[in-house]
């Protein structure tokens, strides 16, 4: 399930990139290519569609990200310690007094 949601997130991101690149806040982009306003997808309707598509894709992306965090496979994650932690654990105790092998003179 996590893999499916991840693929859907990638698809939504690609669509979002394309929709945002088509828009132009200064009046250009796809909306500027239509000359007459009485077409089915006129200038105003095209910008409305692009804005609604952007908001819809943003909401979809938010929901998919929340779902992805809920479906993270936690059982498959191994609890391994890092190499640094292993080396720290293997170090001798610095406060332990080493045993002397030399004979003690009395």
What features would you describe in this structure?
By secondary structure, this protein is an all-alpha fold. Helices cover 54% and strands 0% of the residues. Helix 1 (2-22) runs antiparallel to helix 2 (43-70). It is rod-shaped and about 105 Å long. The relative contact order is 0.12.
Structural key phrases:
106 residues, mainly alpha
Q: What are the SSEs and their pairings?
A:
Blueprint: H1 2-22, H2 43-70, H3 83-90
What's the short story on this structure?
By secondary structure, the chain is mainly alpha-helical. It has helices at 2-22, 43-70, 83-90. The chain contains 3 helices and no strands.
- Mean pLDDT equals 78
Please give the oligomerization state of what you see: single chain
What letter string, H or E per element, gives the SSE order?
Answer: HHH
What percent of the residues sit in helical stretches (DSSP H or I)? Answer: 40-55%
The rounded distance between the terminal residues' Cα atoms is: 75 Å
Weakly predicted, low-confidence segments: 35-40
Count the strands?
0
Outline: rod-shaped
As a whole number of angstroms, the C-alpha radius of gyration is 31 Å
Which structural class is indicated by helix and strand composition?
A: mainly alpha
Number of helices: 3
